[in-house]
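Reviewer 2 asked us to include a model.

Predict the structure of this chain.
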Amino acid sequence: MKYVITIIAIVLIGTSFFSCKENSFEKQRQNELEMFNEYMRAHHAGKDPRPSGLFYFPLEEGTGDSIKIGDRVQIFYDIWRLDSVRIESSGSYEPLELIVQHPSQLTSSARAVSGLRALHEALTYMKKGSKSFFIFDSSLGFGQNGVPGLVGGFTPLRMEVRIDKVYPGQPPAE
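Predicted model (structure tokens):
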């Protein structure tokens, strides 16, 4: 009987711990969305998001065809938190090179800038030489865990991208 009571106590403590943690994540996500919506109302009222939730703002129109899934691109970028703190930059000499993937193919555990679902989606709206910025919440960014030493979890971001070069790729097999 003593062991049964001990097991029940462990189960109850464990359940309360995990449910508190889950509620904490839900609360953090709710706080993020409230802050995100407030920012958008203050700075970009009336702008509608893309179906994914990405807010896309073109700054300079490029030339040629739009970038497609499978294309290899070189980009220069800057990423800011919504409070205007810059958290990452490609710099002005070395572009980031990546192969554009469908955002649904990227895992939420991706930790590099090249793994941002928002980036891959936005690239498909751009052309060589174009420049744009886009704003997105953590569901299209670094998620609930963030990137240690770079950005916390549940952090909405603003990213500015300039397309330097585009190399046509092979479209993904269907």
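The chain is about 30% helix and 25% strand. Residues 2-43 form the longest helix (42 residues). We have added this to the supplementary material.
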